[in-house]
């Protein structure tokens, strides 16, 4: 059996602890459903297995947050983004929760949907890593999608396709209630970002990747490597 004690993490002061943050959210895109994922994973035993089989001590508030109280009455499109106030409010709250876990030196697992929540998970962790280790966090983004559209390059207006643009500062917004809360210490550098598994990227995203020299291994690259 693998246990946490067999792994020697270099950057964690509490390697046997796992911070868990669960958020059931679907406002970064138009279809309901993904918000049910965290509860489904938990009720099928994910957290029990992490504790009993991998030996992690879990630090979790036993809640799947839906942040209903943060939902605005009215959420008109802004710079083409859909549900901008809701996604910004949820990801800001999530960022704080993740930061509070990561600053303790424990690994953090975020369960969620949809992918707009990466704005919260990465911004919270990046800030904690800067404070704890005085360095920039690297990100390995394993996904079919690059999710690096700016509001202007996006063809859908869905914010789940934009998290990396806001996190790297390629997309910026002054309004505090629409991602203006993402400060420099929450951001990551395009130099420390690598994509693995891309297979569905928009034309605008291709241009962004090329112009910023972002490293990316597509599914095509992977198929070639293993062939
Ligand atoms: N996390 C995801 N499922 N992203 C899909 C993004 C699809 C498309 N590139 C868009 O920006 O709308």
UniProtKB/TrEMBL annotation:
Q: Which cofactor does this sequence's record say it needs?
A: Mn(2+)
Query: What is the reaction catalyzed?
Result: L-arginine + H2O = urea + L-ornithine
Which species is the source of this protein?
Coleophoma crateriformis
Keyword Hydrolase included in the entry's annotation: yes
Among the Pfam families in the record, one is: Arginase
According to its UniProt record, this protein's enzyme class is hydrolase
> Pathway, per Swiss-Prot/TrEMBL?
Nitrogen metabolism; urea cycle; L-ornithine and urea from L-arginine: step 1/1
**Which Enzyme Commission number(s) are on file for it?**
3.5.3.1
Annotated family: Belongs to the arginase family.
> Can you supply a Gene Ontology BP term from the record?
arginine metabolic process
- The name of this protein is Arginase
Highest taxon listed in the record's lineage: Eukaryota
Q: Which keywords does this Swiss-Prot/TrEMBL entry list?
A: Arginine metabolism, Hydrolase, Manganese, Metal-binding
- List the molecular function annotations (GO) for this entry: arginase activity; manganese ion binding
The annotation note on the cofactor reads: Binds 2 manganese ions per subunit.
GO CC terms = cytosol; nucleus
